[in-house]
Amino acid sequence: xxxxxxxxxxxxxxxxxxxxxxxxxxxxxxxxxxxxxxxxxxxxxxxxxxxxxxxxxxxxxxxxxxxxxxxxxxxxxxxxxxxxxxxxxxxxxxxxxxxxxxxxxxxxxxxxxxxxxxxxxxxxxxxxxxxxxxxxxxxxxxxxxxxxxxxxxxxxxxxxxxxxxxxxxxxxxxxxxxxxxx
Amino acid sequence: xxxxxxxxxxxxxxxxxxxxxxxxxxxxxxxxxxxxxxxxxxxxxxxxxxxxxxxxxxxxxxxxxxxxxxxxxxxxxxxxxxxxxxxxxxxxxxxxxxxxxxxxxxxxxxxxxxxxxxxxxxxxxxxxxxxxxxxxxxxxxxxxxxxxxxxxxxxxxxxxxxxxxxxxxxxxxxxxxxxxxxxxxxxxxxxxxxxxxxxxxxxxxxxxxxxxxxxxxxxxxxxxxxxxxxxxxxxxxxxxxxxxxxxxxxxxxxxxxxxxxxxxxxxxxxxxxxxxxxxxxxxxxxxxxxxxxxxxxxxxxxxxxxxxxxxxxxxxxxxxxxxxxxxxxxxxxxxxxxxxxxxxxxxxxxxxxxxxxxxxxxxxxxxxxxxxxxxxxxxxxxxxxxxxxxxxxxxxxxxxxxxxxxxxxxxxxxxxxxxxxxxxxxxxxxx
Lengths: 182, 431
Prior knowledge:
The complex is a heterodimer of chains A (182) and B (431).
Chain A: H1 2-35, E1 37-42, E2 49-50, E3 54-58, E4 65-67, E5 79-86, E6 92-98, E7 106-115, E8 119-123, E9 128-130, H2 136-145, E10 152-158, E11 161-169, E12 172-173, H3 174-179
Antiparallel strand pairs in A: 1-10, 2-3, 3-9, 4-8, 5-6, 5-7, 7-8, 10-11, 11-12
Chain B: H1 3-18, H2 24-34, H3 41-66, H4 75-99, H5 104-128, H6 135-152, H7 156-171, H8 180-186, H9 189-198, H10 203-224, H11 232-249, H12 261-277, H13 280-284, H14 295-317, H15 324-327, H16 329-342, H17 347-370, H18 374-393, H19 399-430
Protein name (chain A): GDYXXLXY protein
Domain DUF2157 (chain B): 15-158
Transmembrane segments (chain B): 46-67, 79-99, 105-125, 137-170, 176-195, 207-225, 231-252, 264-283, 295-316, 323-340, 346-365, 372-393, 399-421
């Protein structure tokens, strides 16, 4: 009996832990969405599927290279900090890549996958936008048909993390664009 | 004594008593000695299997439905859905833990569902916020959160899923941190060990150990493949030998270990590797520079060879000398490596391996004939045939070498035949 109680108590502790993980994840990302700074990125999407999470638009960002700031002691695959800035047209770009955490400004934790002389190539961590499965193919077609025109992603950034808030095609959000008669 | 034999004996008893072969008291004593035969195990096994498959289907179905990405649901609603599914699975598992702990089917089913719901809750949050976690971070978190369920609900199905998940994690991982896989496998080992100790003949134990053995080989390959350059064949031959020896040594009679994977995996691996190494092409690509072998590879090889040596000694002590011929492979490969370091053409090493495989197949045929065991005879024959066919198509070996090997093969074959014919004649005389 005592043994059974102990087992049940342990089980309840494990259960709380199991529930805490998704809760904490949700809280952290919601906080970034609510209080992070909004940036607009130029994108070029395609549409694959994830077995667990359904269909998404896979985003590729045009800007993935930046000068390395400070000493050139960057190891490939290492976690580095990409400094985010806006150009005159209000578009976000990576102004530099640093091995050390920046003191000020907005930045995202990224991995450097290649480097040239004085520049680094990085993968931005927010490259997916999940959609209801019936909309995903239409979204993909919309992007294909308007090949000359690229979409824009609104991204919220805070403390080194970024969350995609919205995708735009031209002036409309992706959902508005898909709802209008094609 | 296995169950089927006891059942058969019980069926025979009434007839033996009727015919006056056994007195009725003796029959009763026999029944008392062996105890009742549990006829329900079949049904129970089916219940467990269907319970687990049912839970798997329901869990995966829920994950797929969530993956539809319901645009109508607000973020809060999505979180509520995923959490309530998780909590429901937890309540079910907790209830089973409290009220139904003796029912294997309930335990396995509830534990499997709980594990899937833990993954589903994390995946749904990830989907809501368009997260691109590395697949391996997601997998690792999921597996570690599921691990306590293995022990709390004593669930073999969750242990199997955990083992497979960890193997995937190791496969999708780069760099030195791969070595964590040993710790992650280590924490689930007590469960597997317990199965072997307390439930050696159960189907669950056999299935679990098969999965663990296959996953172990995959993890070993993934974790060490970068360090084994040059010593790979030696290390793997030793690993197969260790697996085979643990199968031969761990059980009092071969029947007991028959359904466990050790002997089968060890034998299949040893024979397959031996056959591959009889090709000259393979050895010519082993351009072995001793200096380029990493210390890690030496350590791994040394540890495994010590284990093989210790196992072989115990095998000889246990009077199981017949089994020793398979465990000789690592030493043969080691000798071939030594020859290879002086003779880079690979001819010497190829010759050594061919001679070993020839000797092995002939000795198997002889053993099969001695023990009247057709299976062993056939295994030997198949190996011999494979060897002959392979050598015939080795265009790359010079005619002289091919000729020599064929002559040796022919002599061996004739010698084996002579021995067999003589033995057969001997049996007839005895009869």
